[in-house]
Write a structure and sequence with these properties.
The chain is α+β, with helices and mostly antiparallel strands. It contains 19 helices and 18 strands. The chain binds glycine (GLY). The site of glycine (GLY) has 9 residues, from loops.
Length: 563
């Protein structure tokens, strides 16, 4: 990142002040902790830690288990971002296992002859699916950073797929939402609709095809999915159903290691997801914008107004500039610079909402359900993983290539289907995020670490376009002294530039705050649904306390153990 001399001088001082504090404050956590969206996934990770695995082995086990027991949210047909901290090297790495567009994909592939988006074309069925990255990510993590063989870390997931898991209310709710997507694909229905209809809560769902696919991955690593039998089943299944995948698309898939976005703000180091995620840049920008305001001195409506204005501007930049960094030039240094944020701050009035249409950029031409999963891991050596995994909306594309047990993602909808036309999350974008062969679609997934002299927080959440603002609000709370329970329990609100409205969970804005924000010109919309399913692990250097907390909105499980 380029900096001018003044900022470099200040930054050097800040780092010089912070590093000794970090170094002397911490030793080792002595306990391991996992917070994930499903009890069986957390158990899988603990089992692997108990066998001598490190946080990265545990992350393989949790990620693979979630693919089996939380099939609406992520899986071998999807993609993932893994933010890693290797304690012994004091190094952070971002492992990008995001899906890519197939080789035959084109910028206008979802438009009709009139140039308008074909309804649901980028959401349902095999044409909606990008080439999966999660299986390659699991192999990569185990080979490069794990201590145990891949097969050992995949064993719990294979067991769950063979023996079955008990369908939760959440599993079944997703089936209700997405019947349009899967009803014409018999392989999907055979697994999830055993008697031809949505089963009762507690029904045991077995996935023998998925167990075999996982076993081939365990036996043969990358080639066990991206070449050979699994690849043939996937490609034949997709093409027979009208999709465009080829064997080369799979064989050529590559995991990419990237430098995370790292910024310092008010004594906290924020380490988060770089492009093709929009999370890290947006978080950095919003924090820098707010740094120029004395938020604590303000009444709560004004404080929330300024937080909303920071959100508005970060999402405007997301829409205008962001895409796959291997295809487009992204002005990362500028967008994450405090001086850039200072310029944006100058456009904010403390007593009045900005109209999104008054900001230069792009505006939508016109105006579901979101699914993804996040888990956080800390091992007793201080290694950390923040992982956000996705097949996009509930049960992804709803398409399962016969014989694989793999539900394919519908992540192609995260591309810009047509400039300035909102996607499923009502996000808009420009050519920076247009479809091209082999390109990664822009994401909001934001696995994040926060570090200060107080300790460490490992966090993230599902929630489509709201992921970034949820991580932002939780991060602000932690920076203000909150603990893990307070971070996940926090009521959430969100603004994403367009639609020009503040959408909020029940209780997130008090009646006074609603009145104050409305007077300033904000459009408020209370959501009937809860936002996200955050999983947080924290480690307090002073007390040595390690906490793992799952979101009260979900059904996850957290566990802290001495290993
Ligand atoms: N599919 C959700 C995201 O990556 O942002």
């Amino acid at each position: 990142m380029k900096t001018d001399r003044k900022t470099a001088f200040f930054g050097t001082w800040l780092i010089a002040l912070l590093l000794p504090l970090l170094a002397c404050a911490e030793s080792l956590p002595k306990q391991a902790a996992i917070a994930s969206a499903d009890p069986l996934a957390t158990k899988a990770g603990m089992e692997i830690l108990g066998q001598g695995g490190n946080a990265f082995d545990a992350a393989v086990a949790v990620g693979a288990a979630l693919a089996v027991v939380e099939p609406a949210s992520s899986g071998l047909g999807g993609g993932a971002f893994w933010l890693l901290h290797i304690e012994a090297e004091d190094r952070n790495i971002f492992v990008d296992a995001r899906e890519v567009a197939p080789g035959a994909a084109t910028a206008d592939m979802y438009l009709d002859k009139q140039g308008e988006p074909r309804p649901h074309a980028s959401l349902d069925g095999p044409l909606a699916a990008g080439i999966p990255g999660q299986p390659a990510g699991l192999v990569f993590l185990a080979d490069r950073y794990g201590r145990l063989p891949l097969a050992q870390s995949l064993a719990p997931a294979i067991r769950y797929a063979e023996n079955g898991f008990s369908a939760s209310r959440r599993t079944l709710m997703g089936l209700r939402f997405r019947s349009r997507a899967y009803e014409q694909w018999p392989a999907f229905s055979k697994v999830f609709l055993p008697d031809g209809e949505i089963p009762e809560t507690g029904t045991v769902i077995r996935q023998p095809d998925l167990a075999r696919t996982l076993q081939r991955l365990a036996d043969n690593g990358f080639d066990g999915y991206y070449r050979g039998e699994t690849s043939k089943l996937l490609v034949d299944g997709v093409r027979d159903a009208g999709g465009i995948w080829t064997a080369d698309d799979l064989a050529n898939y590559k995991v990419i290691e990237r430098e995370p976005i790292v910024v310092e703000n008010r004594g906290v180091r924020i380490i988060s997801a770089p492009p093709p995620s929009s999370g890290g840049i947006a978080l950095a920008n919003m924090l820098h914008v707010l740094a120029g305001f004395d938020l604590q001195a303000m009444d709560s409506a004004t404080r929330k107004h300024l937080i909303i204005e920071a959100m508005r501007r970060a999402y405007r930049d997301r829409a205008k500039y962001l895409g796959d960094p291997d295809f487009v030039d992204i002005p990362v240094a500028r967008l994450t610079h405090p001086y850039y944020a200072a310029g944006q701050r100058g456009s904010i009035r403390t007593d009045q909402a900005t109209r999104s249409t008054s900001l230069a950029g792009i505006w939508p031409k016109q105006s579901g359900g979101t699914q993804t999963t996040h888990f956080s891991v800390l091992d007793s050596e201080g290694n950390r993983v923040a992982a956000t995994l996705s097949i996009n909306t509930w049960y992804g594309s709803g398409f399962m290539p016969p014989g694989t047990g793999v539900i394919l993602n519908n992540e192609m909808d995260d591309f810009v289907i047509k400039p300035a036309t909102p996607n499923e999350y009502e996000l808009i974008g420009t050519t920076a995020n247009e479809i091209a062969p082999g390109k990664r679609m822009l994401s909001s997934m934001s696995p994040t670490f926060l570090e200060s002299d107080r300790g460490v927080a490992i966090l993230g959440t599902p929630g489509g376009s709201r992921i970034i603002t949820m991580v932002f609000l939780a991060g602000l709370e932690w920076m203000g002294g909150a603990n893990a329970s307070e971070m996940v329990g926090l009521k959430r609100y969100h603004h994403q530039f367009f639609p020009d409205e503040v959408v909020f969970e029940k209780g997130a804005l008090s009646p006074d705050e609603q009145e104050g924000l409305t007077e300033m010109g904000h459009q408020l919309k209370e959501s009937r649904r809860a936002f996200g399913n955050m999983n947080v692990v924290t480690w307090d250097y002073e007390t040595g306390k390690v906490e793992a907390v799952t979101d009260p909105r979900g059904r996850g499980e957290d566990e802290v153990r001495v290993y």
